[in-house]
Amino acid sequence: MASRLSKDRRDFKLLLPALALFLPVIFLFPLKAQAGTDTWTSLGPDGGYVGTLFISPANSDVVLAAAGHGLFKSSNGGATWKLAYSGAWYDYVACLAADPVDPNTLYLGSSGVYKSTDSGESWSLIGLQDESIQALVIDPANRSTIYAAGDSMTNFFKSLDGGQTWSSGAFNQAPAFALAIDPTNVNTLYLGTRDGIFKSLDGGVNWTLSFNSASTGLVSALAVDPSAPGTLYAGADKGVFKTVNRGTSWTPVNQGLDQSSIRLLAVDPRISSVVYAAGSKGIFKTTDRGSSWTPIPAGGIGTSISGLAVSSSPQQALYAGSPTGVLKSTDGGASWKPMNSGLRATRMDALVQDPFDSKTFFAIVPGIGILKSSDGGVKWEPRSHGLADLSFLEHLFIDPVNRGTLYATGADGLFKTLEMLETPGSAS
Fold first, then answer.
1. DSSP code of 194?
2. How far apart are the C-alpha atoms of 116 and 128, rounded to whole Å?
3. Is residue 424 domain-resident?
4. 223-233 tens-digit pLDDT
5. What are phi and psi of 10, to 5 degrees?
6. Among 68-77, 114-123, 289-298, 408-417, which stretch is predicted with the lowest mean pLDDT?
7. What does the DSSP assignment read for 280-300?
8. Pseudo-torsion of CA 271, 197, 240, 313, nearest 10°?
9. What is the dihedral of CA 298, 302, 308, 313, to 10 degrees?
10. Cis before residue 45, ω within 30 degrees of 0?
11. What is the b/e burial string over 116-125, where b = at least 16 CB atoms within 10 angstroms of the residue's CB?
12. Quick one: the chain helix, strand, coil %, rounded to 5?
């Protein structure tokens, strides 16, 4: 049966008296707690908004994902996840970096700088509390030297003792969002800012403008070619820019990017001619160092991407963070699989129980849409076919008389489906 979605305010108004009689029943007969009295058990659904992604340089099967208000960890290449840590920072994790000598020692940028010595299992605040840290870089020749970039009142910081103490650098010209270091000349640093790209030749003491924002717009990402450190890529509001002479000159390399604003960049550590760029219009790939780009279907062409990481393992795993969770590709982006088992970072804006089946629930999850569970919340299936915009949904109502009728409301009005009991993928 074809999906029949329509705005139907008149039918909904006729249902209001019946809803008023029925809704108290939900509260009179609540679900029996599975984990015992006064305790709660997480039932999912898996997935949710995923931002920063990080692959351990020591073990490519160890992946960290910033999602919701916590940090999730996988030890098997994304097959399963567990909540590694939650609660120390505010609403986001902007960046992660590993100690070049001990990869189990990690640094995290958020509302301050945090440190873990057990591969992300536990964290402690080590400095710059309440600063909005957007990027971290560790000197590959001296692990005690750490640089941090931020977008608050102070934009650049440096530590010479592994993060125990910090000094603010001379750069306070514009909010900074990206930071890179020349691995062969560690005193050379690059900052991506609201006002363009800046360069330092003395470890952050002095800075000069390398490329202005009139050409780039806000610069959100910087990536160094590991095989040719004089080559850098910059992701910005106006696309991707490239230098082959350590920032002396920059060239736009945007053929095929479809006027995309690029927030993320990743150079393949095994094949440096391959570079990935991502932003609000999805992921793009170049195999010729930026001369041309093609879109790759991570979650569908045009899906907004909020995290990106490329493994150095022979499998060349590529991970992407999206509004619905983690996506993984092992064939250079040609195909993708969702990898969200145990990654529970969704937020439910609405939940209703089917009055005809106590184990059936419908939920609204931002960015994902309407989900259905037929087993009391253990498994969930998408039920948003026919709804073009999944971001506006706010409320759900089930007709207590006519089985199979579900209403959804939101900023775009009232929607109705008569196929609530159809197979997954239908408008139910």
1. T
2. 16
3. no
4. 999 999 899 99
5. -65, -45
6. 408-417
7. TTEEEEESSTTS--EEE-SSS
8. 20
9. 30
10. yes
11. beebbeebeb
12. 5, 40, 55
Q: Which residues contact 333 (CB under 8 A, 6 or more apart)?
A: 276, 283, 285, 296, 297, 298, 318
Which residue's entry shows tokens 């920032």? 247
- Max CA separation in the chain (angstroms): 74
The span from the CA of 204 to the CA of 206, in Å, is: 6
Range of the domain at 359: 9-39+347-417
Same domain flag for 274 and 388 = no
CATH number of the domain encompassing residue 126: 2.130.10.10
Partnered with residue 197 across adjacent β-strands are 192, 211
Say if residue 30 is in the same domain as residue 82: no
Cα dist from 346 to 46, 340, 354, 366, 427, whole Å: 7, 11, 21, 8, 21
Taking the model in full, what pTM does it have? 0.82
Q: Give the type of residue at 371.
A: L
Q: Are residues 32 and 85 in the same domain?
A: no
Residue type, 363: A
**Tokens at 25, concatenated:** 């029943």
Of 127, 200, 143, 194, the C-alpha closest to 170 is: 200
Give the residue-averaged pLDDT of 240-249.
97
DSSP string spanning 28-79?
Answer: HSPPPPTT-TT-------SB--EEEEEE-SS-TT-EEEEETTEEEEESSTTS
Residues 296 and 359 reside in one and the same domain: no
d(CA 282, CA 284): 7
- Transcribe 370-422 into DSSP letters: EEEESSSSSS-EE--TT-S-SSSEEEEEE-SSSTT-EEEEETTEEEEES-TTS
Residue 302 has what pLDDT? 61
Element housing 25 (H / E): helix 9-28
Instruction: Fill in the amino acid letter for 255.
Output: Q
Phi, psi (deg, nearest 5) at residue 149: -120, 145
Residue 422 falls inside a structural domain: no
Give the residue from 274, 306, 338 where a domain finishes. Answer: 338
Instruction: Report which of residues 375 and 419 the model is more confident about.
Output: 375
Residue type, 250: W
> Strands 232-236 and 369-373: what pairing?
unpaired
**How many separate domains does the chain show?**
2
* Residue at which a domain ends, from 303, 338, 373: 338
